[in-house]
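Handoff note, outgoing to incoming analyst
You'll be picking up this chain. Sequence as last confirmed:
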Amino acid sequence: MGQLGALVGGSETTGVLPALLRAWLGLIAALAASAVVALGVLYAGHSEPGRVDRWFVDPTADSVRPPWRRIALAVDFLGEPAGSAVLVVGAAAGSLVLWRRLRAVVFVVVGVVLAVGTTTLLKYPVGRTIHGPDNLSYPSGHTAFLTALALMVALLAAGRLGLGRAAGLLLVLASGLVAGAAMGWAQVALGAHYPTDVLGGWCTALVVVPVTGWVVDRTADRRSERRGERRGERMGPRMDERIGDPTADAGPGERS
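Most recent structure output, in case you need it:
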């Protein structure tokens, strides 16, 4: 039971969301949420690339050829069910080995589920399509998935390494940017999403991950506190009985 409690429990120093980064990540999440909403309103009901999309590439045509196309397909596979399952299981297992706390595993699994689920839900009210009315495109779920996973792994690494505010924030944002850029490039190159869909998916991950981390930490800390209170209640009466027993501290020859 003690080992299980250590796995589940924790404190400020063992939270999946490092205390030094919470304020900055909260600000970034607020800005990212504004961007997700603004882009969703701007492109609601559209079925063609916007002006910003055309600055980069026409996403309705194949924009890459071999060998780059094979690389794009490989990156895209990481966001498909089979590829994403392998990544999540690997990240969750690594988190448990390095952190030895179940909250890290919960953070990874719940975070990716919420990131993908949020993009899926947002697609319906926005209604933006690509390659036909049945292909909802905004925001990109593939981009949100890989960005969220990279952000969570970087957060766990920053906490484990005890990085300061500047170094930790740089690691987290750089990881999210690289992962989002790689998956975003693949989605646009394969004609699966508009560039602004990719931006929306990236911003969605920036919102979901800090919120998920905060909720996981709060929930785990409260469970740990309640467990400590129950343990104290069980030990309390025993201590009271011992204090009230005049023979409790008496030597063998002093007891009647």
